[in-house]
């Protein structure tokens, strides 16, 4: 039976940069689906409430001035019992009280309202980056979540090697309207760069196939129409890939709702944060990426290339507003799991 449970990664786990490693183990060994995740600087009061729920030992380090804790919600076959055993093994093999989870469904039900209250806050740990630092956004794309795998955790683990501060994360389902707005610049680029080439090719093939010559004006109109149609279809494929459906498949009334695909959004602060993130991602085309980059290891093609990252602080401001980085669904998900 599919059930839902929670895992709390201690501040020590986050400080030791083990969040990605732990997520990989949970998702693959437990065949678990990550439903929500949030970094939280817990207060002593909230930590005591979590411990009082009866699922966390008193020696578990939830509050730290050096790092936040991380709350994750997973679903899967007999998730609570499964995760509890996995967490015991993780703590043993990684040497520390790094993760904690309720032992059974009853304990999970007791913990969820406490986590819902704890997570009901701004999703980002700080309002803005420090002076001299940048804030940037990275999206672990939907192909990494189609089935339980090491991929999301492994990508996070690679990012932890950078000299950056991790200030926020969330599991997110893009709506059609979000995807249309997020990738609007791509649509214009496709029409500018791709449409003329495709239009000319379609025109030449059509005239050859039917042994027919358009007039100059008609040829221009036909090529433009064919080229733009092809470019727009490529754009809709991107929207479908990121959101889960094409715009035409979703009623206007539902275009602001998650369309079915899942991604994970991570926010980082630091000096040259944009460049550092984009360097470890590698080129947009995985075939051009160097070994040791995210896209070399996990990308397949220009669209299915593992992750997206903002290309400037200005792009971050636009993109972060679209996907609402200050909001996180974890509180609502936890509240509904009671």
Provide a compact summary of the structure.
With 338 residues, the chain is an alpha+beta fold. It is built from 14 helices and eight strands.
Question: Would you give an account of this structure?
Answer:
The chain is α+β, with helices and mostly antiparallel strands. Helix content is 46%, strand content 16%. It contains 14 helices and eight strands. The protein has helices spanning 11-15, 19-29, 44-52, 79-93, 105-118, 151-159, 176-182, 184-193, 195-210, 216-243, 273-281, 294-298, 313-322, 330-336; strands at residues 2-9, 33-40, 69-77, 99-100, 134-140, 165-172, 263-270, 307-309. It has a four-stranded antiparallel sheet, sandwiched between helices. The protein has a four-stranded antiparallel sheet with strand order 6-7-5-8, sandwiched between helices. Helix 2 packs across helix 4 and helix 5 runs antiparallel to helix 14. The longest helix is centred in the last third of the chain and has 28 residues, at 216-243. The two termini are 17 Å apart.
């Amino acid at each position: 039976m599919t059930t839902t449970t929670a895992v709390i990664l201690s501040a020590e786990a986050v400080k030791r940069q083990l969040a990605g490693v732990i997520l990989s183990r949970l998702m693959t060994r437990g065949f678990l689906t990550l439903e929500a995740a949030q970094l939280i600087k817990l207060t002593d009061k909230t930590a005591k409430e979590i411990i009082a729920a009866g699922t966390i030992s008193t020696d578990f380090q939830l509050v730290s001035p050096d790092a936040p804790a991380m709350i994750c919600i997973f679903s899967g076959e007999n998730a609570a019992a499964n995760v509890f055993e996995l967490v015991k093994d993780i703590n043993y093999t990684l040497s520390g009280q790094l993760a904690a989870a309720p032992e059974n469904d009853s304990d999970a039900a007791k913990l969820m309202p406490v986590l819902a209250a704890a997570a009901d806050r701004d999703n980002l740990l700080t309002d803005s980056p420090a002076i001299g630092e940048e804030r940037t956004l990275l999206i672990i794309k939907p192909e990494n979540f189609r089935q339980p795998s090491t991929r999301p955790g492994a990508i996070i683990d690679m990012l932890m090697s950078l000299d950056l501060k991790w200030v926020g994360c969330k599991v997110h389902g893009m709506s059609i309207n979000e995807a249309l707005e997020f990738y609007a610049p791509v649509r214009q680029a496709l029409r500018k760069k791709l449409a003329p080439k495709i239009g000319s090719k379609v025109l030449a093939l059509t005239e050859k196939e039917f042994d027919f010559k358009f007039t100059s004006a008609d040829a221009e109109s036909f090529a433009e129409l064919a080229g733009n149609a092809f470019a727009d279809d490529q754009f809709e494929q991107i929207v479908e890939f990121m959101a889960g459906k094409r715009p035409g498949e979703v009623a206007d009334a539902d275009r602001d709702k998650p369309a079915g695909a899942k991604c994970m959004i991570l926010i980082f602060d630091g000096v040259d944060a944009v460049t550092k993130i984009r360097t470890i991602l590698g080129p947009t085309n995985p075939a051009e990426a160097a070994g040791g980059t995210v896209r070399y290891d996990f990308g397949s093609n220009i669209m299915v290339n593992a992750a997206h990252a903002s290309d400037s602080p200005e792009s971050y401001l636009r993109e972060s507003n679209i996907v609402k980085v200050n909001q996180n669904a974890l509180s609502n998900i936890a509240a509904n799991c009671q």
